[in-house]
Amino acid sequence: MGLAVGQTVTGTASAIPVIRATNGEPDWDQLAKIINQWLPNAFVVGMPYNMDGSENDMTVKATQFIARLEERFDLPCHTMDERLSTREAKDLSRANAERGGKKFNDKAIVDSYAAQLILESWLAENSNKP
Fold this sequence. Notes:
alpha+beta; globular; Nucleotidyltransferase, domain 5; 6 strands; 4 helices; two-stranded antiparallel sheet; 18% strand
């Protein structure tokens, strides 16, 4: 599961290392450690809609994850459409790898970049809200 941290003052986000998920279930202990380290005020979760905007099985699972996240950590959870974020993250990861003279092949980096892009999109859309 890709993760990022951000802040509202600059509207920027940074990718942080992914956490493992097994059968769609995150490592809750690892997630709790990250939350205790960063002390967020809220969560933003990417919603995996179909290209036509309709929901699918993953959308339902994301909604269930949000309910568990809010219940466990007692923080608000916002959603952001994540369509095409993985494609954009792959392009970004590939460009960064090529600049560094490396091969592009790390799914974990792509997931973290996607989380960063989703969070930055949410921050941009909500910058004028209290």
